[in-house]
Every structure is written in structure tokens, then in C-alpha cells.
Design goal:
It contains ten helices and no strands. It has helices spanning 6-25, 36-44, 54-85, 94-109, 112-123, 127-151, 155-163, 168-203, 209-219, 223-251. The radius of gyration is 23 Å and the shape is globular. One of its GO terms (molecular function) is ABC-type phosphonate transporter activity.
């Protein structure tokens, strides 16, 4: 087998070793499914959502949607100009580019829940700390993703604009941004969808919204109410995914 060289053999051995270590440390054991019926019994308590909670939970869903939307939108607004500084082909100075990359890595390395817990000590309970936590994390994530799109953009239109006398900053905006905009939107809607799930977790630490309701219902064993919470969360994610796809199709 000429395609399977000695180098591939070493890679396969490393892969097997890492898989074995991972299985050991995660206590991966398929035999634990012998009590599968316990999960079925548990899920049976979720059947028939508590529909009378719909008006209250719909209002909480709007809070969750607002946290996710504002957090993602402000994150994009701040990340977009920073991504031009963090891209190798548009950054004016090498050391500024490197420091911006480190800064964005630092922002996205801190989980939203940690940022939220820190902000709670200053801002107290409520949706506002959750919004800021999502904004800060999204600046790091969207800044990196958009900077990579900028680096992969076609240099032709950029050079053409500079050749006719346009300043570099003007050429950056009008030659690169139209090329990458559909993918920017795609990343934005993906982060918006992620932010909905994040705002649910932040609800567990007092950020409000349907996440807090889910935590309270689970803690008090109200499983039919939990079922209603999960149903609304699924509808939110599906609606955002559908709307995002339609928006992207229109832009392309």
C-alpha cells in the first residue's frame, strides 16, 4: 500500500493513544446504559407541556431573545473595525496586529458565565450583565472569524481602488467588506443562535429570561413546565436559524 506510509502509521498510533487516554479519563463505558429505563421513566414526566404557562414564558422568551440579539449585535459592531486591525493584510503596523490578535484571543478565552459572574458583583442581578458578557465574548470570537475572512479576500479590487487614488482605509472598507459581507452575516447569525443558548445558562445565575425559568422549574421538579420551557427554546433557535438563512440568501 503505497498510500499508507510509515508517517501515516505513526499518526495512526498517536491517534489511537490519544483516543485511549480520552476514553479512560472520561470514564467512557457503554455498559452504563444498562439503566436506560430510568431515563425513559424520567422523560415520561415531561409529556404534555404545561400550556397555561405559555403567556408568561413567551414574555420571558422575549427577554432571552433580546439578551442574545443585543449581545450579538453590539459584539459585531465593535468586532468589525477591530477585525481590520487584526488582519495581516489590512493592519498598518505589525506589532499592533499581533497585540490585537492576543487581545481577541484573551476575550474569547474567558467563558461568558465567568464574565457574567464578575459583572454581577457590580451590576447586580438582571439581563444587563448577561448582555455585556455576551458582547465581550462575541468581540473576541467575531473579531477572529472576520479577520480571517479579510485575510482570505481577493486583493484585486483593493489594489484597483488604491491605483485610482483611494486611501488605504477607504479601499479596505469598499473593496473588502462587500466580498466578505455574506459570510459576516452567516457568522453573525450563528453567534446569535449560540447567544440564545448562552443566555439560557446565564439565566441560571440570575440573568432572567427563560433560562432562569428553566432552572427554577427543574429545581422544583415541575417537569411539565420544563417541557414547555424546552419547547419554546427549540422554537426560538429554529426561528433564528430560518430567518438567518433567508437574510443570507437575500444578501448573496
Amino acid at each position: 500500500m503505497t498510500w499508507f506510509t510509515k508517517k501515516h502509521m505513526y499518526q495512526l498510533i498517536v491517534l489511537i493513544v490519544f483516543t485511549a487516554i480520552g476514553l479512560y479519563y472520561t470514564e467512557f463505558d457503554i455498559r452504563k446504559f444498562k439503566d436506560f429505563h430510568n431515563m425513559i421513566d424520567f422523560l415520561e414526566r415531561w409529556i404534555w407541556p404545561k400550556w397555561e404557562l405559555f403567556p408568561k414564558l413567551a414574555k420571558e422568551s422575549i427577554v432571552t431573545l433580546s439578551i442574545a440579539f443585543i449581545g450579538s449585535f453590539f459584539g459585531l459592531l465593535i468586532a468589525l473595525p477591530l477585525s481590520f486591525i487584526a488582519a495581516k493584510n489590512t493592519s498598518r503596523f505589525k506589532f499592533v496586529y499581533q497585540w490585537m490578535r492576543i487581545f481577541l484571543s484573551f476575550l474569547r478565552s474567558i467563558p461568558e458565565i465567568v464574565i457574567g459572574l464578575v459583572l454581577l458583583t457590580v451590576l447586580g442581578l438582571g439581563p444587563f450583565p448577561a448582555v455585556l458578557a455576551i458582547v465581550i465574548h462575541n468581540i473576541g470570537v467575531l473579531g477572529k472569524l472576520i479577520s480571517e475572512l479579510i485575510e482570505a479576500s481577493d486583493e484585486g479590487p483593493h489594489e484597483a481602488m488604491k491605483a485610482v487614488g483611494a486611501e488605504k482605509s477607504i479601499a479596505d472598507v469598499f473593496a473588502i467588506l462587500p466580498q466578505i459581507w455574506p459570510n459576516v452575516l452567516s457568522h453573525y447569525f450563528y453567534r446569535f443562535e449560540v447567544a440564545i443558548r448562552t443566555s439560557l445558562i446565564l439565566g441560571f445565575i440570575g440573568a432572567g429570561g427563560i433560562g432562569q425559568q428553566l432552572f427554577n422549574h427543574f429545581k422544583t421538579f415541575q417537569y411539565k413546565a420544563v417541557s414547555m420551557d424546552v419547547l419554546l427554546i427549540m422554537l426560538l433557535v429554529i426561528a433564528v436559524d430560518f430567518y438567518g438563512s433567508r437574510m443570507r440568501e437575500k444578501v448573496i
